[in-house]
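Project standup — Tuesday

K.O.: blocked on the structure for the chain from last sprint. Re-posting the sequence here as requested.
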Amino acid sequence: MKTRVNPFLAAVIHGALENIAIEMGHKLMRMSYSSIIRESEDFGTALTDATGRQLAECTMSTPLQSGPIPGYIEGILRELEGRGDTVNPGDVFMHNDPYAGASHGPDVGFAVPIFHDGALAGFSVTTAHHLDIGALTPGSCGIVDAVDTYAEGLQFKAVRVYDGGKKVEPVWQILRSNIRIADLVVGDMEAQVAAARIGADRYSALLDQYGLQTVTDAYEDLLDYSERLMREAISALPDGAYNARTHIDGYLDSDDPALKELPIEATLTVKGSDIHVDLTGTAPQTTHKPINMPLVGTVDCAVWLTLRSILLDSETYGAIPQNSGLTRPITIHAPEGCLANPIFPAPVIARFCPGNAVADTIMKAIAPAVPQQVSAGIGNLRVMAFSGVSGGNQWVHMEIMEGSYGGRYGKDGMDAVDTLFANTRNNPIEDIESHLPLRVLNYELRENLVGAGTWRGGIGSIRGFELLEDGAVSIEGDGQRFEPWGFLNGKDGSPATVQLLHASGPTEDLPSKIPYRQLAKGDRLIAYGPCGGGYGPSKERRPEDVLDDVLDGLLSEELALEHYGVVISGGAINHKETEEHRSRSA
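H.V.: unblocked you, prediction finished:
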């Protein structure tokens, strides 16, 4: 195929673009104040062209942060055009509008325009999750009772925070006056601006070295290359329609049936080298509950990430240019007014778990076409937002509780990890306990609850927290009502649970979503993560793998026999009795 520039030069420029995005990520992590960026890596850094097409992203970025960046730029440009404004050298724009590209309000983007010879050549962009954005209650996750987007915190629509290189002080004063833990949050924002400026400087140097036309031609070739890889992978699929339907908890303690046990449905139509994803059948939006998902910024990222991961697995394809070319063969439709395409001002701040469920549903739908490239059902995640006042100072901490993957062809599901579009890391226990009035009581894997299969599902974690002072918590989660799905005769996994152990004595079982709730010193929260679904018939699992789980304390000898037909005694396999038992139960 004819290219615009020498392929070797294009590869050099691609490496330079990626290194710029990676450097931005490292600098942002090192300059940030909060653990959600510094430790959990809940951020995105990327370069785009002048229209918002993504050229490169940081490999440490979270897909739900880096994926929406093209939408941020498109939203900023639309907003500026609508008010008759323009982009000028030295400007920096702040944006978090969930109805104009952002995933939700706490994910704030900062965009630095890049000019070359007086013309706009692109944008250097950072996004990050902030611990507070001035919402109804402390924190930026766990807010599960907002009635509209205005209750979810401050909204920034292409707000100019630097004007021609000069800091717009009134904007920063508004931020400090309306955000809890302002030093932490605003410090993170300033780190974002600094990292984006580093990216802009590096990109400008690249343009000076090779010239705008050569760099433009190179990334046009890279976009085409990524598109070609995706189209070739899609073309290998049998044409046809593939459908799946799953459910999310919603609000299990609600008396309103329209708020609980909500369906997510996806139909993928493959035709040639194109895939059309239709989310018709997904539940209507929840007008006064914030589990709706922006179509641009959340739903599209869930679709793209899942299909890219399945069809262009890096284990097979290696590193490929991560840019907007990958999304060209994929179109998405969601009926207006459903959970996956809400109508403004429907609240969306708690879109995290439903979006992960969309990704899981896409996986389930495409699974029959590529059975050896998918996992069984994933165990969804949970976010706990702890807060309080200590020594006269307000504090907020966001803790992401891991889920688990389902079993995969040839491999067990991954244990206690963030899944699909949520690949953040957890906070080190030492970091939590050295900065906050919290004690981590335990951190371990669950036992005897795996999704049995030829390759078992991943195992969820148990994490316990004790408040060392009076405080509060809010919880945003899912996966307590429905079991992760098994695949190809694998067993379903196990749902999650949360318990509150009151210092005064009683134990309380909690639903997956808890609005802001005050807790007393000594209260303990125990989160039991879900276990992923199994892949393939459990009686075909290698006895040696079953033994490993027994010896690791993850499975009892009794369940080894019940689920897998493997007889274990005294830490060893009885092969004769195992063969006899499996033959009887075949």
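K.O.: great, moving the ticket to review. The chain has three domains: 7-226, 375-537, 542-586. The chain has a mean pLDDT of 95.
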